[in-house]
Each structure stands twice: as structure tokens, then as C-alpha cells.
Amino acid sequence: MADPQEVLSQRVQSALGAAFGTEFAETDPVIRPSQFADYQANVALALAKRLGRKPRDVASAIEERLDVDDVCREVEISGPGFINLILRDDWIAGQTQGLLSDPRLGVAQPQPQNIPIDYSAPNVAKEMHVGHLRTTVVGDALARTLEFLGHNVIRQNHIGDWGTPFGMLIEHLLDAGEHSAEADLLKTDPNAFYQAAKAQFDTSEEFATRARKRVVLLQGGDTETLRLWQELVDLSKVYFNKVYSALGVTLTDDDLAGESTYNDMLPEICDELERQGLAEVSEGALCVFLDGYTGREGNPVPLIIRKSDGGYGYATTDLATVKYRVEELKADRILYVVGAPQNLHFRMVWDTARKAGWVPDTVETTHVQIGNVLGSDHKILRTRSGKSIRLMELLDEAVERATQVVAENRPDLDDETRAQIAREVGIGAVKYADLSVSHDTEYVFDFDRMLALTGNTGPYLQYAQARIRSIFRKGGVTPEDAAAGTIKVTESAERDLALALLGFAPTVQLVGETLEPHRLCAYLFDLAQAFTSFYDQCPVLKAEDAELRASRLALTAATLRTLVQGLDVLGVHAPEQM
Ligand SMILES: NC(=[NH2+])NCCC[C@H](N)C(=O)O
């Protein structure tokens, strides 16, 4: 184990047990990074009260029994009873060396869990909007991170592929003609098709009547209607996959588990809730009333699970998702990466499902709330004419702008290489902008900021790792060969860089627990900066002697691997050159 904080925690806990009895061996030793030492153990202050002794005495008692000679160069009691811990340089070097021979970069293998993760979930025959973009990008980063940690991640793309709009969509498909140019638009510009269908529905009584009849046929399972519905879904899948491949996200058709998947479960869900006395008919609709959910005038807010016309809605399908994920997917932990406004919906659905006994207490359900993406006017991002933005156009513009950045920086490269780099940088910039702020906050979409080569941006980190690759090219060494070098830590910049490298595993673990990829972004940004200071202060290729050169090249190799691995779990490409 390479995490100094974890190692020191265990050592201090042993000392606590030895000094005050085994019941203290699990007390939190309160190890914190400190400006006066590498770390401080602050447990003595809290314990003093409990023990009725002076904090400094408690600290001395701990220090006396503390066995850290192999890890620390100095242990010193300061102030009212802080224990300052300064790590040994050779310990830091040894632990960093360990990272180089570990494909997991120090990340411990956890007890693997089954984790279904619901993300992206665009709607059939509709444009994906920036909100979908963000759940797709954040969800994918979480899926990758949990997978890297060693869990069994089950991607669930809950696309909106059912409901009353399909009546008008199917009728419009028939009017436009199957395989017509207009139908083909669904693969590239779904909104045009949707709007045309909607316009028909709103203006033609004849069309509206057909559309309503079509909904009944669809729900009744009419074969021809289902075939047409499937065609709409298939055309939309082409569009979704185009977006996914442009973004480089890991979702495939195998991960599709849309609303329609759960149709067969819905009647039974309602029956069972009724049987259990959890649901009751109110104004013709079957509703669940839960304690603690009241509206403006104190009226109870119902979770409607069957409408008065007999139809099922979003709530019923989501009851099915959680039941299915527990019972069939054997989930240990279930994540829903969905827009923040849907929080009330999920809380009510899960409360109901738990009451019904479908979700045991041991299974955690989490709504990873996605905040809005805003335009420069601080309103939900739209085009100037107020229409929602076409996602593909947005991505194309990012690549277009990145093309200019790359052209300025690398006029020496051929067009094709430059175009490839521009794609990786443009998409990387958009994705990183979504990831680097905490997922539940709103942020302003700003091309200039996300594409900047300075600051906590995708292009800055991509550039940082590309620059390291160029060091190896210049030195005629491969990173793999360099990794065999023996690390020695003497200069303070080397020490800082090595300590930063040891922070990778705990950070990834923390992201797995908190589901906050922005913590990994902040870590990688700090690491890249630690490398810059190191590279400024410590000659690498021109180091004084061969041993020093080998050590610094090994540190450089460890940095490259960590940056590339970190970007990879975020889903951001790391170009060879930039
Ligand atoms: N299980 C879920 N409800 N997942 C999220 C679905 C998101 C929905 N399709 C939307 O566009 O808002």
C-alpha cells in the first residue's frame, strides 16, 4: 500500500491500542496533510477529553509507542499536542518505485460489487441536449472509474422509447414514407422530424385522431405498429451511436435498456403495491402517498403509478428499473446519473420500492445529480434564436476551434495528424469541462475557457502528457525502459512529485466512493503542476550523472503513466503529440 496517509493511520492506530487499550485501536487518528510537516496526527486533542488527560501527555504516550522508523524521518510533538510526521525520502522513493511495477498504480483490489449505472438516456426521435451530454460524459467517467477499481459495472441506457408521442411519430413516419429522406433525418437531425410531427398533430384534427388511435394500437401490441415503432427506435439508435462515437464513450447497443424494456412488469408492479396496501385509487388514478412529500398547500404529493386512462408513466417504469436491477442484475449499489430536477421523482420511487420490500437496506441507491449547463446569459444553453442546440453542431464547433489551436501550435505537422489531434483536443475539452466542476453545480459553457492551454482544462492536461512523451522521444528512451530505473528522492521538487504520484490511488478510490470525478481532475491538474516544477528545477535528460538521469526518467515515466491512466478513466484521450 502506497498511500502515506493510510500507512500512517494504521501505525498511529496500533500505537493508540498499545497506549490506551484495544478499544482505542480503531479510533480515527485524524491524519491530515500539514504545512509544518508532511502530515499531522491530531487525535491527541480529541482523545484528551475522553481520557481526562492533557493533550500533550496523550500525544507523548502515542509517540512513545509509535513504530514508524521505516516510514518517518522525524516525529515531533508540536503546539498543544499535534504529532508532526515527516516521511523518509527513501520510503517515498520505494513506494513510488512500487507504482512503476504495479499495473493498478497502487489501487487496492476491492470486494467487487455489481453496480448498474443508468446514464445518458436520451429520448427517441428527439435531439440530445447539453444535459444529456453531461450525464453521458459524467456517467461514462464513473463507469470507467468503477471498472478500473475492479467492480462489475452494468451500463443501463434508459432511453425514452415509449409513451404517447409515438402515436404522432409513427403516423408522421407513414406520411413521410418509410425510408424517405425525411425519415432518414432521424439519424442526424431528429428534432426536425419531431417538430414536423408535432406541427401536424397541432394543426390537423385528422392527423391527431390517427395519432391517438395509433397509441392504442401500440399499447395493444399490434404487430404492424410495433414494427413501425421499432423502425423509429432503430433510426434514433444510429443518431445516438454517432454522438457516442464522436464523444468516445463506452456505451453500445448492448447497454440499451429503454423504458419499453419494462412494459411487461408494469401491471404486476401496480397490483403488488395495491395488494400491499401501499397504493390507492385517487380521482381515478392509482397513487402511492408517502409521508414527508407535501406540496405547496401542505397537500400530499402522489406518485402516480397508473393514470386514470389506464396508462403507465415514468414513475412506474422507474419502479421497474430499481426492482429489476436488484432482482435480476443482483445489484449491490445502483447509480442513476440524471438531471438534478428529477431528484424528487427518484426519492419517491425508491421510498416506494423500499417500502414494498424490493430494495433491501444493504443496497444503496444514489442519484448522481447533474446540474444545468448554461449559456453566457446564465440561462439554459440555447441557440441565439432560442432553439435548443444541436449537439453534433456543438461538438463540431469544439473540434473546429481546436483545429485553430493545433494549427497555431504545430504548423510542422501534416494535415491528417493535425486533424486527428484537433478531434481529440476538441472533444477532450468539452468532456473535461463537464467533469472538472462538481457534477451537481451549474456551469457556463464557454469554448474559450474549455479550450485554453492553461488552467484546469482538458487541453492543458493533454498537453502536459504530450510534452512528457516528447521528453522521452528527445532522450531516445521509451517510457517502458525508463520505468526500470531506480528512483532516488533528494531534491524537494522530486520529493513533491513523488508524493503527488502516491496520491493517485487514494484519489481514484475517493472518486469511487463519492462519485465525484472532479476530484480526479483536480488531482491530475496538481500532478501536472508538480511535474512542471520538477522539470523546471531538476534537469532530466541532462542530469549530472547516469544514476540521477535514470531516477528522474523513472519519475517522469511514473508521471506519464499516471496522467494517461487518469485521463483514461475520465474518458479523455491522451494524444501522442500536441
Ligand atoms: N431511469 C431514468 N429515469 N433515467 C433517466 C431518464 C432520462 C430521461 N429520458 C430524460 O431525458 O430526462
Automatic annotation (TrEMBL):
<feature type="short sequence motif" description="'HIGH' region">
    <location>
        <begin position="122"/>
        <end position="132"/>
    </location>
</feature>
<dbReference type="Pfam" id="PF05746">
    <property type="entry name" value="DALR_1"/>
</dbReference>
<keyword id="KW-0547">Nucleotide-binding</keyword>
<dbReference type="GO" id="GO:0005524">
    <property type="term" value="F:ATP binding"/>
</dbReference>
<dbReference type="GO" id="GO:0005737">
    <property type="term" value="C:cytoplasm"/>
</dbReference>
<dbReference type="InterPro" id="IPR014729">
    <property type="entry name" value="Rossmann-like_a/b/a_fold"/>
</dbReference>
<keyword id="KW-0436">Ligase</keyword>
<feature type="domain" description="DALR anticodon binding">
    <location>
        <begin position="461"/>
        <end position="578"/>
    </location>
</feature>
<keyword id="KW-0648">Protein biosynthesis</keyword>
<dbReference type="GO" id="GO:0004814">
    <property type="term" value="F:arginine-tRNA ligase activity"/>
</dbReference>
<dbReference type="Pfam" id="PF00750">
    <property type="entry name" value="tRNA-synt_1d"/>
</dbReference>
<dbReference type="InterPro" id="IPR035684">
    <property type="entry name" value="ArgRS_core"/>
</dbReference>
<keyword id="KW-0030">Aminoacyl-tRNA synthetase</keyword>
<dbReference type="InterPro" id="IPR009080">
    <property type="entry name" value="tRNAsynth_Ia_anticodon-bd"/>
</dbReference>
<dbReference type="Pfam" id="PF03485">
    <property type="entry name" value="Arg_tRNA_synt_N"/>
</dbReference>
<dbReference type="InterPro" id="IPR001278">
    <property type="entry name" value="Arg-tRNA-ligase"/>
</dbReference>
<dbReference type="InterPro" id="IPR008909">
    <property type="entry name" value="DALR_anticod-bd"/>
</dbReference>
<protein>
    <recommendedName>
        <fullName>Arginine--tRNA ligase</fullName>
        <ecNumber>6.1.1.19</ecNumber>
    </recommendedName>
</protein>
<dbReference type="GO" id="GO:0006420">
    <property type="term" value="P:arginyl-tRNA aminoacylation"/>
</dbReference>
<dbReference type="InterPro" id="IPR005148">
    <property type="entry name" value="Arg-tRNA-synth_N"/>
</dbReference>
<dbReference type="InterPro" id="IPR001412">
    <property type="entry name" value="aa-tRNA-synth_I_CS"/>
</dbReference>
<dbReference type="InterPro" id="IPR036695">
    <property type="entry name" value="Arg-tRNA-synth_N_sf"/>
</dbReference>
<keyword id="KW-0067">ATP-binding</keyword>
<feature type="domain" description="Arginyl tRNA synthetase N-terminal">
    <location>
        <begin position="6"/>
        <end position="87"/>
    </location>
</feature>
<keyword id="KW-0963">Cytoplasm</keyword>
<comment type="subunit">
    <text>Monomer.</text>
</comment>
<comment type="similarity">
    <text>Belongs to the class-I aminoacyl-tRNA synthetase family.</text>
</comment>
